[in-house]
Amino acid sequence: MINIKILEITQIKENPFFVYNLNILESNYNKLKIIWGKHQKFNINVYYSLKSNPHPQIINKLNQLGSHFDASSYNELILLEKLNIDAKKISISGPAKTEKLVDKTKKMGVHALHIDSLQELKKINNMGIHTNTLLTLRLAVKGALWKKLGMSSDTILKILENLSQQRFDGFHLYLGREQFTVEQAINYIDTAKSIMGQFKNKFSNKFAMYFGTG
After folding, report:
1. Which strands form 112-115's sheet, in the order they lie side by side?
2. How far apart are CA 44 and CA 192, in angstroms?
3. Cα–Cα 20 to 30 A to 66, which of 97, 158, 161, 201?
4. What's the longest Cα–Cα distance across the chain?
5. How many CB atoms lie within 10 A of CB 182?
6. 30: Cβ–Cβ under 8 A, 6 or more apart, which residues?
7. 9 conformational bin, left if phi > 0, alpha if psi -120 to 50, beta if neither
8. Chain segment 117-140, per-residue pLDDT in tens
9. pTM metric for this prediction
10. Distance of alpha carbon 158 from alpha carbon 167, whole angstroms
């Protein structure tokens, strides 16, 4: 590991700055791989959210380690494209998907697009998506937050009941942030399983589940 003396850097840099240690980043990522490696019967991938830190060196390092990526804006998706990140390793989330973002998503053929609302679903259906892109429903924590980060189970049930020709490829479960508990996570997995059980014909054989804490 490189020995970096912060005081020496302050003599070179006049403005506030961040110091990133890519060795620690790699160590933490490998710890996640060890944890998920215990569940080999599942095909599990880690998705790094660009909104947490879009620094190109961090993205490149994680890409080398095998990470996948989640973008929430057009600019984030363009950055991933410029860094030559495989579209098959990219998902799109966030409650404010612009037509510009949806159009770029379609052209690139990203791996997955997570739907946050009925209005968003209508927009995407009108514009169309790439045949390789999975379309998932974002199930949110019950309460005020789901109004902007995903949909309640009741809303998802109505969508599945009313859109007879629509097919989906799974769920994105928004598990909260400060609100997160293991019990709550288990409850929402059970809710997703229950919904799928009621509407098996509305889901494809590519079914997948994604988890995020916002």
Report:
1. 47-49, 68-71, 90-92, 112-115, 134-139, 168-174, 203-212
2. 18
3. 97
4. 65
5. 8
6. 65
7. alpha
8. 989 999 998 998 888 899 999 988
9. 0.88
10. 14
